[in-house]
Amino acid sequence: xxxxxxxxxxxxxxxxxxxxxxxxxxxxxxxxxxxxxxxxxxxxxxxxxxxxxxxxxxxxxxxxxxxxxxxxxxxxxxxxxxxxxxxxxxxxxxxxxxxxxxxxxxxx
Amino acid sequence: xxxxxxxxxxxxxxxxxxxxxxxxxxxxxxxxxxxxxxxxxxxxxxxxxxxxxxxxxxxxxxxxxxxxxxxxxxxxxxxxxxxxxxxxxxxxxxxxxxxxxxxxxxxxxxxxx
Lengths: 108, 113
Description:
The complex is a heterodimer of chains A (108) and B (113).
Chain A: E1 4-7, E2 10-14, E3 19-25, E4 31-37, E5 43-49, E6 52-56, E7 59-64, E8 69-74, E9 83-90, E10 96-98, E11 102-107
Chain B: E1 5-7, E2 10-13, E3 19-24, E4 31-38, E5 42-50, E6 53-57, E7 64-68, E8 74-78, E9 87-94, E10 103-104, E11 108-112
Parallel strand pairs in B: 2-11
Antiparallel strand pairs in B: 1-3, 3-8, 4-5, 4-9, 5-6, 7-8, 9-10, 9-11
């Protein structure tokens, strides 16, 4: 049983398209994280949120605590957005749970 | 650059051996987290230390151990290595007043032959 489920697993988009990645979780959380992992392997934390919505440039993250669901949106996608996007939650007892990631490829 | 450093970058060793991975957190951060990312299991939380004390434990095998030293750097010790231990090992640190916010190191790629 996975505490965090992501969809889709793989996503291919044309440059300029609006992209949505979804994350559902089953545990009580103190925060939800969206991470970006580039092909080189390095991980960058994009957002940490516990309610509402956050925006950073072309990236928007939302969370619905009642529905235990979060979405990551990318507006005007660009080839440099190609990466794996990982949803993670920090839950009871300081445990962290990760989704399996969404591999995004943006084609010029 | 997150400010978190990890050494070595790559490590190749044989089954049955023992290795030590090192992590230096960002200046001022008291928390250190260790994660394992393997091809078949994805990212998994191993263990967290806060100011030298173990704070939370995840899916860490008994063959693995970690500690955080007074200067706040941390080491992850992996012993009796098996082929399945081949993975990327990440360290992350978080600020004392924003413990949920994490800054990841570049990772150590361990290959067990």
